[in-house]
């Protein structure tokens, strides 16, 4: 009787519950999981297509111990954010997440919701949990869509059943440093991705694979790890949870998307914002040595937003960028991007979706 899967939720109940702000401490939200009211679930069989999903009370889900996702890592996730603006809520480019999930699903042999199904499900989930969208300036509602092989397998094969699930959680800054610069260490033995592998899609295994290097870095006092390419061991790839940008004069460079780099939606947005602000943006191979004489280095990601890098350490040598907070370029890009996301400036690119 306690199985949340079996309890259908009447939609009007979710909307009536969503009017008052949730009773939590809204100041100093970090990036930790806070359970909310509802999650969205939709299922389909291998070879079939997703049809009708529904909101359910948030809770644990039931999976066969033999589920494809548990045994062979057949799973993808997405991340996007909703911001409160007056009485409305703004989503940022949700169709981009939908498209990225579809690309990842193709790589991982999974069926995927259509872009329309994905965006509709995100909207329903956010509205049902509206009371958890932080007040303006306090953070955002992080939306986590999952796609997983939920059916049972034993031999290595695509699972016979798939589950698309969305849950949400209110969040603040990703790094404990807040918007203060982060200190990165460059990893030159372990690698995040390999050519021909899955580095370019948001499969769950890519993230478990960085935990070892990340834990070691944190134990030494670094904020996170910057990975190099595994073939030449000299080109920048990305940080565990975000993309990387290097600023030199008016030129902003970032590693090109070549199969081992996650095509970040914030990355893509920052490239457009930077060009609109008159910067020259280069997507190319970026050598580790370029960090030595960079003016600024910063990271981008949905969770991270734009995060200035204060120092990078490579083979024991530390390069500092000499800012207490943002450098001028990352400050400008951060401020334009977040004002767009929060609906504070004219959205000429039509990136936000109002609920
Ligand atoms: C995001 O930025 O949304 C991500 O998916 C990264 C994750 C490790 C928090």
From TrEMBL:
EC numbers on record: 2.6.1.42
One Gene Ontology term from the biological process aspect of the record: amino acid biosynthetic process
Any one annotated GO CC term: chloroplast
Residues represented out of the complete protein: 66 to 420 of 423
Keywords: Amino-acid biosynthesis, Aminotransferase, Branched-chain amino acid biosynthesis, Pyridoxal phosphate, Transferase
Modified residues (N6-(pyridoxal phosphate)lysine): 202
Cofactor: pyridoxal 5'-phosphate
Family indicated by similarity: Belongs to the class-IV pyridoxal-phosphate-dependent aminotransferase family.
Descriptive protein name: Branched-chain-amino-acid aminotransferase
Record field: catalytic activity: L-leucine + 2-oxoglutarate = 4-methyl-2-oxopentanoate + L-glutamate; L-valine + 2-oxoglutarate = 3-methyl-2-oxobutanoate + L-glutamate; L-isoleucine + 2-oxoglutarate = (S)-3-methyl-2-oxopentanoate + L-glutamate
A molecular-function term among this protein's GO annotations: branched-chain-amino-acid transaminase activity
Enzyme class: transferase
